[in-house]
Write a structure and sequence with these properties.
two-stranded antiparallel sheet
């Protein structure tokens, strides 16, 4: 789950998670110059839910949120279930329909609002004074 999820985390969360979990996020690490490692977050891809050609690369689909926001989501069942708890409620509803799946995760999965479930191999990582997330 770590490698599947880490590409969409903020720089702060990824750095904290890599340190706490003693793991490197393969989708964020690029080698530059003299072997110096830098991290680059995989961006959330915004799309246009009003257009047939929404701008999402295959196999992603466009899910509409609130206030004109729409983003590309992965409809692969395993990845969908890992990603969906972190989306806003409107994106979850749209993605449920677009993907013919149901998000069963805890919305806004911050450690302050849910137990990470050590038995599931998850741990709480603090990215800042105001954000901590199960990874």
């Amino acid at each position: 789950a770590f490698q599947a999820d880490c590409g969409s985390w903020s720089d702060e969360l990824a750095a904290a998670a890599e340190k706490k979990c003693k793991a490197k996020c393969a989708s964020r690490t690029e080698l530059r110059g003299e072997g110096e490692e830098t991290t680059t977050a995989a961006p959330v891809i915004q799309c246009d839910a009003e257009k047939e050609e929404s701008g999402c690369p295959a196999p992603l689909v466009c899910a509409a949120g609130s206030d004109g926001w729409a983003q590309c989501v992965n409809c692969t069942a395993t990845q969908f279930l890992l990603d969906c708890p972190y989306w806003e409620a409107e994106v979850i509803a749209s993605a449920n329909t677009a993907c013919s799946l149901t998000c069963v995760g805890h919305h806004n999965s911050q450690c302050v609002s849910i137990d990470c479930g050590e038995a599931q191999g998850l741990t709480c990582v603090s990215a800042s004074d105001t954000w901590a997330q199960c990874v």
